[in-house]
Amino acid sequence: MPRKSPQPKASRRPARAKAIAAHARAAIAPRSVAAAESIRALEPDARPIVQVAPGTGGLNLRATPGGTLIMTLSDGTFLSARESAEAVQAKVGMPNQWLAVATTAGKAGFVAAQWLKIISISPQPTPPTPPTPPTPPTPSLPPLPPDIIAQNTVFAARDTVLANGWRITVGTPLRVMEANWAGKVGNPNQLIQVQSYAFKAGSVPGTWVVAPTAADVRAAVDDANVAFGISAWTFGMHDEFDRNLFAGSNRMGWVLMTSLVGGDPMPNYAEWALGGYGVIGRLNNDYGGSGTIPTPDRYDEFATRCANWVQAAQAQIPGRPELHRRVWIIGNEMNNPREWPEEGRNPGKAIQPEQYADCFNRTRRAIQARVPNAIVVPGAIDPYNAAWGNPLDYWNRMLANIQDLDGLALHAYTHGPSPNLITSLGTFGDDPLRWQYFDFRCYTPLLDVVPQKWRGKPAYITETNATPHDGQPAWSGGRNGWVPEAYREIARWNAQPHAQQIQALILYRWIRGGGSDAQFAISEKPAIQDDFRDAIRGQDNRWRA
What we know:
Structural class: alpha/beta
Helix content: 10-25%
Shape: globular
Number of strands: 22
Largest sheet: 8 strands, parallel
Oligomer: single chain
Strand order of the largest sheet: 19-18-17-16-15-22-21-20
């Protein structure tokens, strides 16, 4: 993503482009939902599922046991076993054993079974038995209320692997893709066709899902019912902007201000909040240089700096500051080498997901010790950058090590200016990004795997734009409907039953940055401003509660 510094300094946009090109650019030509080489779509019980054990440090996939190297699999990679359940149980975790497996992309080979762990085992067929009297039918559960059935939504009752190895977490909402499904819920002998909100589909046994206890009746919120510093509307802009964009609309939105903590002057957060806008502050140790967060020996010092900053921001508020709330994002795109100490030139200083989680945990504790109602959110990862490895692995490992959080930050972009790219389901064509959508809907798979305990937390898409692509500069579409279409997509997401609510979609960016970052400056693009006005005036985009 583009350089986030408000100062006119050299841009790092080329570094991001190179990172994508090195790992996923082969996807640009095909960009089809189905990968060119794919394994047979399996029911969840058709094959045992194993995983490269965390902490392994990578596992080699070979053409034959001990033979030619095909590729190295990162920790946490899911694999379908090509052997029986008995063989999997006998080999996994044992030295000197090789297991035949296939990746989600269909690459088949052998791995050392010692470094695997079992995720699921398919039941083995029972041998033929003499005819017996008919088995009594499975006792049926109480019928579901009509309002629940009408919403066609269930929840994953366990961590579940859908077709092609896509793993969702317990509590993930699933759209039911068949009629007359209600009687199958809870029945182990029935399969239900489902699709996650990230458009990942499969068939699951009735015992792998649960019905909601009540229909989703949440309604759009009003500005009068949210705290100062929170907006009921999803419209937003990165950097302090011309408020005339909202003039006459009777609607409000969000402003995001990014700061180098201790190095930049403090913005007037209170002025925006008292003016009716939602306020998001992103706190950075540095823009590149010494890293979006510092090295581990300085985590406590950084946490103290952030706590001092947030406390001083709260002191801007007259009267009763406890009635005001702010969203504070800690760091940015921690999986992108541009944001590491020494900007990736020293791989030993890469920000590992466990390290980021440690820094975030300390910083959130320090902030909320001073300002208990602060909304403290982990930085968004780069959804496309594979220089560290699979961004999905980074996201999962980061969340697994965070003790608590108050929301989730995401980034979403299109490669080019066409509004049709907002809803495109084209995916990357090579590993490790075959699972990821190539354009705006890249936010959806990350929300598929949020731990259940945080599914009620708000989400914020804190950067979006039409990025440069195929010789076209950023925001090159003008007033072509890209911005209204992006906000319609967020409204569609938020309207889904039991969907985690996205409270803000922030356009990147208002000001003119340095170097190639200057091309993003919406302040110099009247047509994009008009596209934004069209969205504001044409849509009732409020999140639900």
